[in-house]
Amino acid sequence: MTATPTDLSATATASPPPVPPTRRARLLTALGPTGIAAAVFLTVVLAVAAAAPLLAPSAPDLPSLLDAYAGPSGAHLLGTDGIGRDILSRLLYGHVRPVCRQARPELEPVRGGLVRCHRAIEIDVQETKA
Question: How far is residue 100 CA from its own chain's centroid?
Answer without folding.
Answer: 13
